[in-house]
UniProtKB/TrEMBL annotation:
GO BP, sorted A to Z: DNA damage response; methylation
Protein name per UniProt: Protein-glutamate O-methyltransferase family protein
Domain Damage-control phosphatase ARMT1-like metal-binding: 19-341
Family: Belongs to the damage-control phosphatase family. Sugar phosphate phosphatase III subfamily.
Taxonomic path: Bacteria, Bacillati, Actinomycetota, Actinomycetes, Kitasatosporales
Length: 364
């Protein structure tokens, strides 16, 4: 089994996320909302902690027991970059919510610290284009994953690189084949970012429901703000309002129970999907197909390990309780299921294809 990724190599991608992206994010959050001295002090304290040891959750945190079960007893007190990268990054977002008082008793309770960034993106969204074919909608949903505000914070002035035509792996034919096997059934979509990614996800869901290619869509979103732009139920409602006729149909489908939104606690867990609880396993097991959106879900799906890129996708995801497709633009080093010639050609062009958000894949 390949080793779990940690962040302790200076200059490596995970190290950069912990030591460069996170401080930049704290500064952006500090500026975006008029927090008072208490919250600002807590953000500064979190910033000061990044080069030291991982601190505990706020006293009285309602989810302390949940986090203990997810590993905090093992990792709190250790240096941030010596614990699994997946765990450290996820816990950072939970601590950021403590710092801004998201779970506290004060006035900032329930105020999404990333809302100003998400709102700016939503305001800039073009109205949806009607009449796209299903394959075009699938690609819109795939490339919508470039819309990741956390990633953009470190992309800096240069912004996102040009997207590369052609996918590093494309099993879209396999995806449609799974979906069309047997009578129309349930499609699970594990959403990633709000706004420019969620809108095409919703358009795809609407089209598949309208064409009776699926009988039901179950959309998993995050129960609280996470990884900057990740979609929460509030973001789904905001996006439905922007989705024109498709939004109205989905609104009705929610009322009818054909479009279901879930915000399961495990969606914000710092763990691979291999460790999912039984109720989530049952959800995914009941679906004709589950579509995992985005880079973080991919990392969780393949357990965030140093796999050789040619390791078969089916081997690594074999534990999943039903057919699972990954739609992802590449924004971290982990990748599986590529053929040798593809890897050689990509490597010949430099390593940034794994992390620059310029390349994408569809795997089943
Ligand atoms: O929104 P996504 O596609 O899950 O990306 C999450 C971001 O966080 C990371 O998982 C690591 O910071 C990157 O891979 C990516 O930039």
């Amino acid at each position: 089994m390949a080793d779990v990724i940690v962040s302790n190599v200076p200059g490596s991608f995970p190290w950069g996320v912990l030591h460069e992206r996170h401080p930049a994010l704290i500064a952006r959050v500090r500026d975006a909302t008029p927090y008072g001295p208490g919250r600002r002090g807590a953000l500064d304290a979190l910033l000061g902690e990044i080069d030291g040891a991982i601190g505990p959750l706020a006293p009285g945190a309602a989810d302390r027991g949940v986090w203990e079960a997810w590993g905090s007893e093992k990792y709190v007190g250790r240096p941030w970059d010596e614990v699994p990268f997946l765990w450290a990054e996820s816990y950072f977002y939970r601590r950021l919510l403590d710092a801004v008082g998201y779970f506290g008793p004060g006035p900032w309770r329930g105020i999404d610290p990333f809302a100003p960034f998400k709102a700016a993106e939503l305001d800039g969204l073009a109205p949806p284009v009607a009449g796209l074919e299903e394959q075009a909608l699938l690609h819109a949903s795939l490339w919508g994953n470039r819309a990741d505000l956390g990633f953009r914070i470190s992309a800096g002035e240069a912004g996102l690189g040009e997207r590369v035509t052609g996918l590093v792996a494309d099993d879209s034919a396999g995806l449609w084949a799974v979906l069309d096997r047997g009578a129309p059934g349930r499609l699970c979509v594990v959403a990633d970012n709000a706004g420019p990614e969620l809108l095409p996800d919703l358009l795809l869901a609407d089209q598949l429901l309208a064409a009776h290619r699926v009988s039901e869509v179950l959309l998993h979103v995050k129960p609280y703000p996470y990884y900057v732009s990740d979609a929460t139920p509030a973001d789904v409602i905001a996006c439905l309002r922007r989705a024109g006729e498709a939004g109205k149909r989905l609104w009705q489908a929610m009322a009818d129970g054909r479009f279901i939104v879930r915000a399961h606690p495990f969606s914000c867990a710092p763990l691979p999907y291999q460790d999912m609880p039984d109720d989530l396993r049952a959800d995914f097991g009941s679906a004709t197909l589950t579509i995992m959106k985005g880079d973080l879900n991919y990392r969780r799906l393949v357990c965030d390990r140093h796999w050789a890129a040619t390791t078969p996708y089916a081997t690594v995801t074999g534990y999943f309780p039903g057919p699972v497709a990954a739609l992802r633009t590449l924004k971290s080093e982990v990748v599986v299921g590529l053929d040798e010639a593809t890897v050689a050609a990509l490597d010949a062009g430099g390593q940034s294809w794994r992390t620059a958000g310029t390349h994408a894949l569809i795997q089943v």
